[in-house]
Amino acid sequence: MASANAISQRGPVRFWDRLNISTKRVIWAWAFLAVPIIFYAGIRFYPTFQAFWLSLTNWDLLRPAQFIGFANYQKMFADPVFWKVFQNTFLYLIIGTPVSLVISFVIAYYLDRVKLMHGFIRALYFLPFLTTAAAMGWVWRWFYQPVPIGVINGFLSSVGIPQQPFLRSVDQALFSILIPAIWAGLGFQIIIFMAGLRAIPSTFYEAAKIDGLGDWAILRKITIPLLKPTTVFLVVFSSIGFLRIFDQVYNMTSNDPGGPLNSTKPLVLMIYQTAFSSYQMGYAAAQTVVLFTILLIVSLLQLYVLREKK
Amino acid sequence: MTVTSTELKANSRDIRPGRIIAWTLLLIGGLIMITPLLFMFSTSLKTSGQVYDLRLIPAAPTFDNYIKVLGDGRFMQWFLNSTIIAVTVTISNVFFDSLVGYTLAKFEFRGRYFIFLAILSTLMIPTEMLVIPWYLMSSQLGWLNSYWGIMFPGMMTAFGTFLMKQFFEGVPNDFLEAARVDGLNEFTIWWKIAMPMVVPAISALAIFTFLGNWTAFFWPLIVTTSKELYTLPVGISSFSAEASIQWELIMTGAAIGTIPTLLVFLLLQRYIVRGVMLAGLKG
After folding, report:
1. In a domain, B11, yes or no
2. CB 3.0–4.6 Å: which of A67, A135, B105, B132 could bond B168 by disulfide?
């Protein structure tokens, strides 16, 4: 008995020992990947297909989902609120991305040359990046209040400029929300631009100086072209951020989310309300498919731009 | 032409005022950047009667608001929730993203490229698209209103995996081979030999994951309905909506949510900035 036990215990060990090194390594590799494969399949891929499927149903949490073809999409494209939301989302994107990138590049360009109190000034710009958008939404909301509460209107009235309605105006509310969104992301963009600037070999600058190029010419002919990978990364990163804007809008307009009159409502807030306020899960899923498509186009554009360079 | 621009260049080198102006503008811009934070802290130290006094330094600073806001224990609970969740998710990401990144960088096997592409492709799937299926999954499995329900979507990320893979590719194979000759098993080689060689990448990943989960709002807002399970951002949002026009209390809540990350930053500034640079350049 004892010897039989010993043999059967040795069995798997022998089997393992008999494998050659590369087979062993393949087994190790799949063992390492086992849990992650289950995770990515169950928590990323399966839900993705499920979202596409749900977008073709009328699921509302109460009754089982029924296939209704493209009815959700027809409803969405016929809904004026959807087009308003679509327009808002693009306004966040096409104003937010260029404005934040230009500001952060200018700051990074000059900050990179500053020696005196470099770390301190950099920290001032970087700190807002570490804040919570939900909390800062409320701080900015307070800033925008009318006199005598709001800081900005208080300042405006002290220099003789009439009060502005900011978040209460259909024309100003979207921009009033964009400012904190840009503000919160600047620090990250500045740091990444500075990293990109430092990655440019100094030999390029030395050669340019020998050729007698001025600051402006160096900036245009060397810095900006060589910074292209960094710029493309930041364009895509911040575009995706503005397309998915939610926290600021939700917290700055929480008494009438997306208001006034849907003038600030982005796509993600519409998705949230459709799904978790009206429980039209199928319809909300169709809206997420639209968001997915837009983000996919942005990502593919990035790949295209970067490939062209190589 | 060349001569003139050289002269211009030489001149701009000599003219110091340009640099002084640039430095001053940068400093002013930086101070403007932190103005919202300064006003937030300042107002959190004011009484409700002083809120309308817009001076930055409170006439009679008081911690009453903090005592009031922290007094009923809700913020303590939310703070605890956020900490547990952010720390757990960070540990999970450091472990799994590194393990997968290492496997994809250092092992030869059929299907490696497919797995890599599959994981990378999840970068293109927005969270917002997955929340409805996740919500369905959570309600069927009883994960609503639980730590696990808040955490499970972020336990691994394609971004982290990609970042770690890039760094493990830079680890020389000789070290790993030497360990193999010494008879170490593959798990030990990864954990004891390879991981210590990519510590900067690990800290970058940890910083990003922690910050991302600490400030996360969308999914925790959806998956939690019971106030005891709110994370700090969701708690601040609900507290502020309740407090309505008591701005000094709202600012105190916002300050409580902001102070921890600012403190961590002041302690680890150098590592955080370096980590963000690393992640941004490689990722």
Report:
1. no
2. B105
Q: Which residue type sits at A146?
A: P
Pair of tokens at residue A35: 């849990």
Residue type, A127: L
Per-residue pLDDT tens for B206-233? 988 999 999 999 999 999 999 999 999 9
Residues A133 and A184: beta-carbon distance below 8 Å = yes
Question: Do the domain assignments include residue B68?
Answer: no
Q: Hey, are the CB atoms on B241 and A183 less than 8 Å from each other?
A: no
Is the CB of residue A308 less than 8 Å away from at least one CB of chain B? no
ipTM of the complex: 0.88
- Across the range B1-7, mean pLDDT stands at 41
Supply the pLDDT for residue A287: 95
Give the orientation angle of helix A173-198 with respect to helix A118-126, to 10 degrees. Answer: 140
Question: Which two structure tokens, joined as six digits, stand for B119?
Answer: 């994981």
For residue A67, what are the β-bridge partners? A57
* Interface contacts A/B by beta carbons within 8 Å: 272
Count of positions (residues) in chain B: 283
Which domains are assigned to chain A?
2-54 (no CATH), 72-309 (1.10.3720.10)
Q: Which residues pair with A57 in a beta bridge?
A: A67
What is the residue range of B222's domain?
73-282
Q: Tell me: the pLDDT tens digits for B190-209?
A: 999 999 999 988 988 998 89
Please check whether residue B247 is in contact with residue A277, taking contact to mean a CB–CB distance below 8 angstroms: no
Q: Which residue is closest to B180 within chain A, CA to CA? A: A21
